[in-house]
């Protein structure tokens, strides 16, 4: 069935050598039979010469003159030859195959960024401070994702979901910009509650891969849910947790409410952070400066990539009907010529 135009076969490009060379032939052995077409007529002529009926008629030699019109008796043979040739071309099944642009789609993953916004995140061992450095890196991390649903949880003494899981990254950039220490008045670091809130957002999802990135600089000292219990609960829902401990050990610069810089002791409970990562089959990282924090998010980005699937399609079109149509036309012409003066009753 021709899928462009019913009159496409009328184009004389189908007769050109360039067009014939552009085809893929499904049954190319029929092309070798083309060589036999002239031999078929040669065989017919030999048989005709050997067995033809003869009618003896005496004509003077002067009256036997060659004439242009006598050549017309070969016209029917030409059309019958074309009929045979185009039948063989159709039997050889000319085709063209073109590769279509691949269809790509991703199996996205779900990522919950759980960010500590407690007072200690104002410490300036990361520039301009721990929280702003974390927001910048998280923003760049989101930019590198493709069709992943990402959400944000913030916590200090309490925890709440700031942004639900979404693929609207512009919305997430806005939420990140709004994150501030004053969002949660209750002091402390409720790591267990933060994991619980993040898990609650992801627990009903059917997505195969669920990831939580927990970023904090302190030890769990608030909230009603123990971090390890919360981690086991998260793992039961298929959530993997990457933990990031932010900040240097020892004396670190801290700017008080009056703008004065003081040096205070910094403590981070790495044991609990490592246990959270271990129980959830995640990984623990330590970020002591802006560069190391960027590298950590880059590593997580490589570890948790969406699966990109690609379907390739090839479109194959048959052209045998075009040559079959021409063969039928030549056959009809030949049959029509059989009833004219061009066919000799003695030869047919």
UniProtKB/TrEMBL annotation:
<dbReference type="InterPro" id="IPR050768">
    <property type="entry name" value="UPF0353/GerABKA_families"/>
</dbReference>
<dbReference type="InterPro" id="IPR002035">
    <property type="entry name" value="VWF_A"/>
</dbReference>
<dbReference type="Pfam" id="PF00092">
    <property type="entry name" value="VWA"/>
</dbReference>
<protein>
    <submittedName>
        <fullName>Mg-chelatase subunit ChlD</fullName>
    </submittedName>
</protein>
<keyword id="KW-0472">Membrane</keyword>
<feature type="transmembrane region" description="Helical">
    <location>
        <begin position="71"/>
        <end position="92"/>
    </location>
</feature>
<keyword id="KW-1003">Cell membrane</keyword>
<feature type="domain" description="VWFA">
    <location>
        <begin position="110"/>
        <end position="300"/>
    </location>
</feature>
<feature type="transmembrane region" description="Helical">
    <location>
        <begin position="319"/>
        <end position="337"/>
    </location>
</feature>
<dbReference type="InterPro" id="IPR033881">
    <property type="entry name" value="vWA_BatA_type"/>
</dbReference>
<keyword id="KW-0812">Transmembrane</keyword>
<dbReference type="InterPro" id="IPR036465">
    <property type="entry name" value="vWFA_dom_sf"/>
</dbReference>
<keyword id="KW-1133">Transmembrane helix</keyword>
<feature type="transmembrane region" description="Helical">
    <location>
        <begin position="29"/>
        <end position="51"/>
    </location>
</feature>
């Amino acid at each position: 069935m021709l899928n462009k135009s019913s009159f496409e076969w009328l184009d004389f490009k189908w007769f050109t050598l360039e067009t014939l060379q552009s085809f893929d032939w499904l049954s190319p052995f029929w092309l070798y039979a083309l060589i036999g077409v002239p031999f078929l007529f040669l065989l017919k002529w030999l048989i005709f010469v050997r067995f033809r009926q003869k009618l003896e008629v005496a004509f003077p030699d002067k009256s036997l003159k060659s004439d242009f019109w006598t050549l017309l008796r070969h016209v029917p043979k030409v059309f019958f030859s074309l009929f045979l040739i185009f039948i063989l071309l159709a039997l050889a099944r000319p085709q063209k195959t073109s590769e279509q642009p691949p269809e790509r789609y991703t199996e996205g993953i779900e990522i919950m960024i759980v960010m500590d916004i407690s007072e200690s995140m104002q410490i300036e061992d990361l520039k301009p401070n721990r929280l702003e450095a974390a927001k910048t890196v998280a923003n760049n991390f989101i930019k590198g994702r493709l069709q992943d649903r990402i959400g944000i949880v913030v916590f200090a003494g309490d925890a709440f979901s700031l942004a639900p899981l979404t693929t609207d990254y512009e919305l997430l950039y806005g939420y990140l910009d709004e994150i501030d220490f004053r969002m949660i008045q209750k002091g402390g670091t409720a790591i267990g509650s933060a994991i619980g809130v993040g898990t609650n957002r992801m627990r009903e999802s059917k997505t195969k891969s669920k990831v939580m990135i927990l970023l904090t600089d302190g030890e769990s000292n608030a909230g009603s849910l123990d971090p390890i219990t919360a981690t086991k609960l998260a793992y039961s829902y298929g959530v993997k947790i990457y933990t990031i401990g932010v900040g240097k050990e020892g004396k670190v610069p801290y700017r008080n409410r009056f703008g004065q810089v003081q040096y205070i002791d910094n403590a981070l409970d790495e044991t609990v952070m490592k246990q959270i990562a271990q129980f959830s089959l995640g990984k623990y990282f330590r970020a002591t400066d802006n560069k190391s924090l960027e590298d950590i998010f880059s590593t997580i980005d490589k570890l948790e990539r969406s699966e990109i699937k690609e379907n390739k399609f090839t479109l194959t079109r048959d052209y045998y009907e075009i040559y079959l149509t021409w063969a039928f036309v030549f056959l009809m012409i030949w049959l029509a010529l059989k009833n004219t003066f061009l066919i000799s009753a003695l030869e047919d």
